[in-house]
Design goal:
The chain is mainly alpha-helical. It has 2 domains: 375 residues, no CATH class; 109 residues, D-Maltodextrin-Binding Protein, domain 2. The protein contains 24 helices and 5 strands.
């Protein structure tokens, strides 16, 4: 579709000055709201991750025992590299939430560098710089680069593994082999679904060796090195989950409910609302599609197509969780930016002389619309309600540090446990907490009952009467009910 004119023919600009400018802009965008509490968008997931980091810091740096605050919750399956790094900063500098965001931002800036290297390798410097520009300011790219979540780490290891694996195939150096193995291993450990990155790795290997691929000892070694640690970790943590809490592996659960693929709602949500609108801000998505259609003489470039469609396949295979969580689609942003960067660079080269009128709209889109769109989207996401912080103070005032609590809510909320700095049991309204079960929790150390967002008298009259008769009512407002739980034999007898 477009010619592949060299960068020297395209312009005389200094690419590194522009690249450093993009790095600066990316950093400014990611530092926006960096001191906010973990109560902006996806506060549930952020505080869940943060409890793991805090418990490393407070209870001991045991990497192989990540501990959530909800005793009856599912175990945290992901290898806790990200939370462990945050906890290390807590150890050196004291407990400050900002370190969780700083670690995520650091990973994101690393992703930006490897994205540039990939763009330069498979296209050219101009394409790489434009791709980095998109990655720097697209709203979802920015937001999930500064959340207290492992997404930024996952993106870094995913991007870097592709580059280092391709480089190793070129050089044959053991140092490149080790880095490629390390990045791939960590990608699969940090987020198991990144196994879809096996697609582009397999393409690169096949493109290099063709039919001789099965006669490459180092490829076999590579496969063992990148798959053995994740296999050992997830089998270990699944067994620990079952022994501690019971229940099934969350990663197996995401493979259920495939019937959702038969609904128009799923496809509209994933591909229109999230990919077109949220991920690529409407305007970038057409550039992505056109960039994919660009002709190429270098067949290795199709690794990017394989990467893109491997992620799309993941959207289908893990349809349930992709439908529930928007951040499961974040991995498509980097490769999408590469394709969009390719189109823009080619378009400018094709219209470099006497055709400014054809390019002005692209300038407006890239320099004006996309950053403004991002600022608008980010501003909405960075808003937060500090009610959990106030509730956390109440919890700490009415309990001792070693006391356990019972949190009753529509969904068991890690926000309560995180800001209350207490451990305990999360119970949803649907579970209908029985007086007998509550008393069992009291006998195990529960000293406070917290209901958020419900009316106890209406939701559970039986539990309401039991609490009033056996325990101490503290306060009630439109959104929160508190009871101080008093252990005694009489309560146990009446609960039966």
């Amino acid at each position: 579709m477009f010619s592949n004119t060299s960068d020297s023919q395209a312009s005389s600009f200094n690419p590194f000055r522009i690249l450093w400018g993009i790095f600066f802009i990316a950093l400014v965008f990611r530092l926006w709201g960096v001191t906010n509490p973990l109560l902006d968008f996806h506060g549930w997931r952020q505080t869940l991750t943060a409890t793991i980091a805090y418990n490393f810091y407070a209870d001991g740096m045991d990497l192989f025992n990540p501990r959530p605050n909800m005793i009856n919750s599912i175990y945290h399956f992901e290898f806790p590299l990200y939370t462990y790094l945050v906890a290390l900063l807590y150890k050196f500098f004291g407990f400050h939430e900002i370190f969780g965001r700083i670690v995520a931002i650091a990973f994101s800036m690393g992703s930006l560098w490897f994205l540039y290297l990939l763009g330069k390798r498979y296209f050219d410097k101009t394409s790489a710089i434009v791709a980095c520009g998109f990655f720097a300011v697209l709203p979802f790219s920015v937001y999930y680069s500064r959340t207290f979540m492992p997404e930024a780490a996952m993106l870094f290891f995913s991007i870097s593994m592709v580059y280092m694996f391709a480089r190793w195939l070129d050089t044959g150096k053991w140092s490149d082999f080790i880095f490629a193995s390390l990045f791939a291993t960590l990608a699969f450990l940090v987020k198991l679904p990144t196994l879809y990155m096996g697609g582009p790795l397999l393409f690169l290997a096949w493109n290099k060796f063709r039919g001789k691929i099965f006669y490459q000892p180092r490829l076999y070694l590579f496969v063992v090195m990148i798959l053995a640690p994740p296999a050992l970790w997830y089998s270990y943590i699944a067994r620990l989950q079952f022994e501690t809490y019971g229940g099934a592996n969350v990663w197996l659960d995401m493979l259920k409910d495939w019937e959702i693929l038969l609904t128009l709602r799923y496809w509209k949500l994933i591909f229109w609302t999230r990919l077109v609108e949220k991920m690529f801000a409407f305007t970038v998505f057409p550039f992505l599609v056109l960039g994919m259609w660009a002709t190429t003489q270098n067949k290795e470039r199709y690794v990017l197509h394989t990467w893109f469609f491997s992620i799309c396949a993941y959207f289908v295979i893990a349809a349930k969780y992709n439908f529930i969580h928007e951040y499961y689609q974040v991995p498509i942003i980097p490769v999408g930016c590469l394709f969009a960067g390719k189109f823009i660079a080619d378009f400018y080269r094709q219209n470099a002389s006497g055709a400014w009128n054809k390019r002005v709209w692209l300038v407006l889109i890239m320099i004006v619309f996309i950053p403004i769109h991002s600022i608008y989207k980010l501003n909405k996401r960075l808003n937060y309600n500090d009610s959990y912080i106030k509730l956390g103070e109440e919890i700490k005032e009415n309990t001792e540090p070693d006391d356990l609590i019972i949190a009753n809510q529509v969904n068991a909320s890690p926000q309560i446990f995180y800001y209350g700095q207490r451990k305990g049991w999360g119970v949803t309204f649907d579970q209908k907490l029985k007086p007998k079960t509550l008393t069992e929790y009291v006998n195990k150390g529960a000293r406070l009952y917290v209901m958020v967002g419900g009316n106890l008298e209406e939701n559970d009259p039986e539990l309401n009467e039991f609490l009033k008769s056996q325990h101490q009512f503290l306060n009630k407002d439109p959104t929160v009910t508190l009871f101080k739980l008093i252990p005694n034999d009489r309560a146990f007898l009446k609960s039966g």
